[in-house]
Specification:
By secondary structure, the protein is α+β, with helices and mostly antiparallel strands. The chain is 21% helix and 42% strand. The protein is globular.
């Protein structure tokens, strides 16, 4: 288990947030174009307790945005119960880390009808990326009651 982040404000337990991140399937990932325009699309992800891993084509808009500006915001919740993280993204080229993440990713993503497992390399041209999470924020209901924030130092 990864070390828990430092709580900055609020009272929602880290275990609640960690469970939500582990259970999720997709995240809305927001990047910024070189012209400064926002770009947000869903991606499948893997939460390890400290990092968010995802795959995307390196030549896609998202891949090009990350190459130019690696800071992102990832939104895991809904408008009523938001959960987001922000941090810097790194492209992972280390084969040992790629293999470890791909095993976990492949175990997580299974087609309910065919039973086919989807790994990181299921799409030609994909790269593996990791968000080095700096901050996690959540609250309950759209009135921002219970705003809770953590920091990974």
């Amino acid at each position: 288990m990864a070390r828990e982040p430092r709580i900055v404000k609020g009272s929602i337990p880290w275990s609640t947030v960690d469970a939500q991140l582990r259970a999720g399937i997709a995240v809305i990932l927001s990047t910024v174009t070189p012209e400064g325009k926002p770009h947000a699309l869903p991606v499948w992800y893997l939460w390890t307790g400290r990092y968010v891993y995802f795959a995307t084509k390196t030549a896609s808009v998202k891949g090009r945005n990350l190459a130019a500006q690696p800071w992102v915001v990832a939104h895991f919740g809904s408008g009523e119960d938001p959960l987001f993280v922000d941090g810097q993204v790194r492209r992972i080229t280390n084969r040992t880390e790629q293999a470890r993440v791909n095993r976990a990713y492949t175990a997580k993503y299974v087609d309910a009808v065919s039973g086919e497992h989807y790994g990181i390399w299921a799409v030609k041209g994909n790269g593996l990326y990791r968000i080095d999470v700096r901050r996690v924020v959540t609250w309950r209901d759209s009135s921002m009651r219970g705003w809770t924030e953590w920091r990974f130092d």
